[in-house]
Amino acid sequence: MKVDGRLKLVVLGGYLGSGKTTWLRHQLHKHDASTHVIVNEAAETPVDHGLLGRAAGLSVLAGGCACCTGRDGFVRALRNLCDGWSRAGARRPDQILLETSGLADPAPIIEAIRSDPVLTHHVLVSGIIVLVDAQHGSTQLRSEPLGRAQVAAADRLILTKTAGVADRTLAQLVADLRAINPGAEIAAAEHGVPRLLPDLPMEGLAPLPPLPAAEDLTPMVAMRVALEGVNWAGFSLWLSAVLHARGNDLVRVKGVMRTPAGRLLVQAVRQQVQAPEVLPDAADDPSEGHLVVLGRGCNEAQLARSLGIFTA
Ligand SMILES: Nc1nc2c(ncn2[C@@H]2O[C@H](COP(=O)(O)OP(=O)(O)OP(=O)(O)O)[C@@H](O)[C@H]2O)c(=O)[nH]1
What we know:
Elements: E1 2-3, E2 6-14, H1 20-30, E3 35-41, E4 57-62, H2 71-86, E5 95-99, H3 106-114, H4 117-122, E6 123-133, H5 137-143, H6 145-153, E7 156-160, H7 167-180, E8 185-190, E9 193-195, E10 221-226, H8 232-246, E11 250-259, E12 262-269, E13 272-273, E14 277-279, E15 290-295, H9 300-311
Parallel strand pairs: 2-5, 2-6, 3-4, 3-5, 6-7, 7-8
Antiparallel strand pairs: 1-2, 8-9, 10-15, 11-12, 11-15, 12-13, 12-14
Helix pairs in contact: 5-6, 8-9
């Protein structure tokens, strides 16, 4: 929808693996509004764009977060899109949605849009939705300054993966979120479908402790592991083993692998490996044949070496 002549832009943020793409896929199926989606991924090899086929238009910005290293590229790309839509006869979307990388802080992205004279003329940031993984949220908010920054930037927080999470854990998470951002609306969704939160026991919860100093944290990096020629049995054994050993450091794993059963989307969030999803056949998918691992405490060569041991 155009607001005072400008296009609405919604920023969708949330920590690595919090459920942004899943939630967005559901919204694109449910709503008729034509949405141009911009997917930003920290890794050089994008994976999520292949899942968002229902978007009216899709732009992929890979290899840097729009809040920091990818900021100039993001502003340039958004300017180019707006220029294209301003041309006579161009088909404009009803809205733009930016799915940020899981390593992005939404605040500098919004600042980048609002401080650009061309973009302020074309675009109005109309909402900042941040998804929070109910299973890992409280741990993240106690260990990752980025998790807190994302929550602080939101005007709507949506808890994902709430099914099966104890009320006490949900209550602690809601208390943590309210402590960081008392003004944000808090809702819940399961695989994108809105869900009512139960009445939660809000007494006797722990206050949020101070965060570890930023300089004590090793920066999170994006690593890429080649999967060409790797056999599925050895690969899945390796993935379980490496996440069992290092799942707290290797926060997010995703990739597309060709197997005799078809093209499989492989995903894990911390120690939880998801059942692989069969993807439609696609030629020239740059994400195929690679695994993207976001984490800290190891490097690409070490990952490739250990995969080689399992799949030799
Ligand atoms: N049980 C459950 N699983 C979910 C839900 N939302 C997402 N997932 C799973 O969590 C994993 C990560 O979901 P994504 O939607 O890819 O998360 P993301 O935030 O886009 O991930 P990044 O872009 O890598 O940060 C996938 O395996 C999803 O199937 C949910 O509401 N419930």
